[in-house]
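Thread: "does anyone have the structure for this chain?"

Original post by V.I.:
We have the sequence but no experimental structure in hand. Need at least a predicted one for the grant figures.
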Amino acid sequence: MTIALPETVWIPRDHDRRAEAQVREWLAARTGIAAADLPLVRDAQDRPHLLGTLHDHDINWTHSGDGLLLAFGSEVMLGVDLEFPHGRRRVAQIAHRYFTTQEQKWLESQADAAMRDRAFHRLWCAKEAVLKAHGRGLSFGLDRLQFVEADGVLQLDRADPELGDASLWHLREWSPAPGYLAALAWRPR
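Reply from O.Q.:
Generated one for you, tokens below.
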């Protein structure tokens, strides 16, 4: 079964409104369903879901700095994360506490502090995107999945059984705007 790459959209963040209001406006324009009638609900873990005529679709969004990034796709579970690295995080301490030993070694192998910082944020985005798709978010545990880099690309190497088979997960990393890092994770439903 071939699954199309989920759609991603970058929107300038309106800090005077909730991100969900902006997402609803975009989704209404995209689907032709009035914003007030959109079948967008949240589950007990606060993960958004689409119902009714959009039940075979999934949507997720994230915001950081002045950006709002959303993802929309059909027949998938998806999650997206966006970071605007600001250099104020204690990446070594966070990695030691939340990342696997192999991921920590990969971070330590980076040539300099700037590369370690970028690698840390790539891992963070990838992990958060998968966990958002799963529906439990960061509370599930960042150490319950492990990424490896192969040919400059992060791949999910190992995952807790609750996340399903690691080989079914797809990851796309990119910079949607100058200074930002993003990751989109998805797997078939």
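V.I.: this helps a lot. The chain has a mean pLDDT of 93.
O.Q.: and The radius of gyration is 17 Å.
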